[in-house]
Amino acid sequence: MNVETNATADDSSQGRIRQENIEKIMKAAEKVFAGNGFRGATTAAIAEEAGLPKANIHYYFGTKAKLYRAVLDDIIALWLSSFREIGENDDPATTLADYIRAKMQLSQNRPNASKVFANELIRGAPRISGYLETELKEWVEEKAAILDHWIEEGRMAPVDSKRLLFHIWSMTQTWADFEVQWAAVLGRKKKLKAEDFDAATDFIITIVLRTCGLQPIPSRS
Amino acid sequence: MNVETNATADDSSQGRIRQENIEKIMKAAEKVFAGNGFRGATTAAIAEEAGLPKANIHYYFGTKAKLYRAVLDDIIALWLSSFREIGENDDPATTLADYIRAKMQLSQNRPNASKVFANELIRGAPRISGYLETELKEWVEEKAAILDHWIEEGRMAPVDSKRLLFHIWSMTQTWADFEVQWAAVLGRKKKLKAEDFDAATDFIITIVLRTCGLQPIPSRS
DNA sequence: TTAGAACTTGACCGTTTGGTCAGGATTTGG
DNA sequence: CCAAATCCTGACCAAACGGTCAAGTTCTAA
């Protein structure tokens, strides 16, 4: 019987088989939820993607909603762990550039995580509004305060710090969520190349640093 | 019987009742597809949103797939009509600012259109790859050429023109697709205020014009 | 006024869906 | 080695799904 433990990926107090299967299922679920949303995803599709019979998915997670919740929690944990990057005493230019690089790494390496999150937001975020209103809001306010402090100290040019963070998010995540669009426009065959991500990263760093007066605008020819 | 005319919204050669109902259904469908994706949307939900019995939806559109196609075509037509904005001989700063304003107007006024499109992209764009690879690709190349021309003439600072357009898109559409996220972080109750859209518009214009050397970077205090 | 075209819709159908379960197989700790 | 715990899964079910249809109502143009 399923001992009523809310199954999550990082629960190390579990047996070997359990851990392996949960990981397999969550990975498959992330992919299927990313590509179909919660309502459009089927447990049968997740089972096939995971290479397990459907009943096995229900054995570990009970319901589709609980599995979705587990996937969401996993993604939020990943998000939060990638957040800590910006610190008070660092150099503005390198700190911003490092943060942009870290977010772009996530877009490149975990696009499905970003897509599940995007799906949830598009639908009005009924299941993650708590996270948005607390952890994320606090993170933005905390980091915006640091930027404002840098501005006050004259270490970067005045800029709307909160909105700068919003738009760094939108620019970095577009390369995960809407990859096909940019691949099509760039003439790639469905998938972007690593150099496309590198070029995008450099561009976003440029646009942000120029805006903050941390990188000179090249003179007009 | 449904005379085999591919029903679309702007078909003015139709009867009054037909036109009204098609409009009602497409509006409802856009909302339901935006919130659930193609697979997650149900014809019953669309019918209820439209205030019509389910059989009536099938009377006008046949299948869910055809209705989705009609909604998609409607959105693409809207997208393309909002594209023509950037012309060769205009002033770079005002042209870019006007384009950003136009895109933000769309995000504010037709968020569901943007969301349906976003859903389709997240899913890998199986039904709009043709549009991405032709019309959109050509538009980007055409407009990027104009930006490059401006740069050559010394009318703006050197910048990766294609990627500038990509990121203008990502920054403007985030305010439609992910509105709840920014509303939550800004402490609004689910919905953004008009002034939030205005502030975002101003910010995006600022970041773009600064990057292009078309607006001075304020001196550090 | 009237006949045909267009529209309406409750009832229905086959399929897919999320979820259950019993009974067997495998793993694990002592 | 054994027995208890855990894992496995084909078969099954009720509900929800996309779609059909026939019988009726309303509209329209002559």
Identify the notable features of this structure and list them briefly.
221 residues; mainly alpha; Arc Repressor Mutant, subunit A; Tetracycline Repressor, domain 2; globular; DNA-binding; TetR family transcriptional regulator (chains A, B); DNA-binding (chains A, B); HTH-type_TetR-like_transc_reg (chains A, B)
Question: How would you describe the overall organization of this protein?
Answer:
Chain A contains 10 helices and no strands. Chain A is mainly alpha-helical and 221 residues long. Chain A folds into 2 domains: 58 residues, Homeodomain-like (Arc Repressor Mutant, subunit A); 139 residues, Tetracycline Repressor, domain 2 (Orthogonal Bundle). In chain A, helix 1 crosses helix 6 and helix 5 packs antiparallel against helix 10. The longest helix of chain A has 25 residues. The radius of gyration of chain A is 20 Å and the shape is globular. The N and C termini of chain A lie far apart (73 Å). The relative contact order of chain A is 0.10. The N terminus of chain A is likely disordered. Chains A and B meet through helix 1, helix 6, helix 7, helix 8 and helix 9 of A and helix 1, helix 6, helix 7, helix 8 and helix 9 of B. The structure holds a DNA duplex (30 and 30 nucleotides).
